[in-house]
Amino acid sequence: MNFIWVWNAKTIKRYMIIAIAAFFTAGILFVERSQIPVFSTDEEPFAIYKVDAEDKEIALTFNISWGEERATPILDTLKELDIAGTFFVSAEWAERHPEIVERILEDGHELGNHGYEHDHYTKWDDEKIKSDIQKSNRIITEVSNETPKYLRPPNGTFDERVLNIAADLNYDVIHWSINSEDWKNPGVDTIVENVISEVTNGDIVLMHASDSAKQTNEALPEIIDQLKSSGFNFNTISELLSGAEISSKEVH
Q1: Count of domains for the chain
Q2: Is residue 37 part of a domain?
Q3: Is there a domain that residue 200 lies in?
Q4: Which domain holds residue 118?
Q5: What are the backbone angles phi and psi of residue 61, rounded to the nearest 5°?
Q6: Torsion sign (Cα): 33, 39, 41, 43
């Protein structure tokens, strides 16, 4: 049976993984609660879903694949509250809304790659996956003058093939540990509760800035206020991942 490794990391520098692998022999594993291995010398594909952080740091991430009505109010709210986040944008969306992409960067946020066609990569063959990531990378780079280094596959679905292809293209796959489920529009209070009830140090929070997420901007101020009151700081993915240890979680 094949396994995918979803990594909980505060750094994803691959040279650190290589150094760790060189230091630890193949049979040495560190075991946490529930017998989850932290270090393994097997070269497994990995995705990052949270950070093993000592401090109260989290990252707000926003997926955008269509629409122009919801993104700007969300950017206005984040600017007013002085919060930086990471926006995973569909390249098909980015090429139609370059002015919003420019605003994202001007406001100090980070851009991530969310593919071009918004479909499940796990349904595709290897070449189509690779082509979509490369096309998206090229368009986002042309629109923003910045090359994204993080990939969140469309719909958040991936398998071992997707992880290997992303790694070959020098991308790190970013998943999430907290799902706001804002795209379901379950009500502002529910979105707030979905985030703050489970949040811990190092969490990556999934939210949306597409037009389908009609209640996200209403929920944001309350989420940010409550988390700030609890002592949390907000980082981009790059900030969250910089300089710490790596651990892993096995996913069937």
Answers
A1: 1
A2: no
A3: yes
A4: 53-243
A5: -125, 145
A6: positive
User: Of the candidates 121, 112, 123, 110, which has an alpha carbon nearest to the alpha carbon of residue 151?
Assistant: 112
The answer as to whether 76 is a domain residue is: yes
Residues 6+ apart with CB under 8 A from 52: 8, 9, 10, 202, 244, 245, 247
CATH code, domain with 117: 3.20.20.370
Cα angle 100, 104, 107; round to 5: 130
Interhelix angle 71-80/98-106, nearest 10 degrees: 10
CB 187 within 8 A of CB 154: no
Gyration radius of the chain's alpha carbons: 18
Whether 12 is covered by a domain: the verdict is: no
> 42: buried, middle or exposed (CB in 10 Å: 19+, 13-18, 0-12)?
exposed
Q: How do the pLDDT tens digits run along the chain, 252 residues long?
A: 444 445 555 444 443 433 333 333 233 233 222 222 222 335 677 899 999 998 999 999 999 999 999 999 999 999 999 999 999 999 999 999 999 999 999 999 999 999 999 899 999 999 999 999 999 999 999 999 999 999 999 999 999 999 999 999 999 999 999 999 999 999 999 999 999 998 999 999 999 999 999 999 999 999 999 999 999 999 999 999 986 554 444 444
